[in-house]
Amino acid sequence: xxxxxxxxxxxxxxxxxxxxxxxxxxxxxxxxxxxxxxxxxxxxxxxxxxxxxxxxxxxxxxxxxxxxxxxxxxxxxxxxxxxxxxxxxxx
Length: 91
What we know:
Layout lengths: L14 H13 E3 L1 H7 L4 H8 L3 H8 L7 H11 L3 H4 E3 L2
Helix pairs in contact: 3-4
């Protein structure tokens, strides 16, 4: 099941894992952009308060990166909400 990009670098996950990650991301919508703009907070300011890069905030807002649980709690605290309200599961 391991495939190589070249002869020395193994692929770290299979196509089954890729599919699982895509399904999981498609089922979760976050409210970070909405709450951030309601509170007039820039991506950079939110990133500074959460001790991550602006690019990380952008990736989370665009559902390209799933934050750690610790980061999810920091985001919720800074945005004045709870983790369950910040990340909504949609059917």
